[in-house]
Amino acid sequence: MEHYLLKREQKRRKRLMRVRRHVRGTTLKPRLSVNKTNQHLSVQIIDDEQGVTLASAGTVQKEFKEMQLGKKSKESARAIGKKIAELAKQQQIEQIVFDRGRYKYHGHIAELAKAAREAGLKF
What we know:
Elements: H1 2-20, E1 31-36, E2 41-47, E3 52-58, H2 62-66, H3 74-90, E4 97-99, H4 108-118
Parallel strand pairs: 1-4
Antiparallel strand pairs: 1-2, 2-3
Helix pairs in contact: 3-4
């Protein structure tokens, strides 16, 4: 059993690095990094040149819990996409690089990206 778990983690790391190798954020075009767990979804806008997180949003934040979107769902993914686009607009960020990490571009991830595009981010 331990070998199976070790192999699964190695495959996840390999998939993550395969995507991350090609995705790099700059000051003019930062990286939108997505992280999801079994219960929550979160995103960050990261400037990799300076190593700074410029903005973040997630279902663990108080405002999403008040809107009954405190759990991972497609509705909460849409709300997070809109919120992160608003935060980016406040910092005059128009273009980003989308980093899906080790997750497939499907379901929650696709809804989040679609909402962010509709709110004005270009990627």
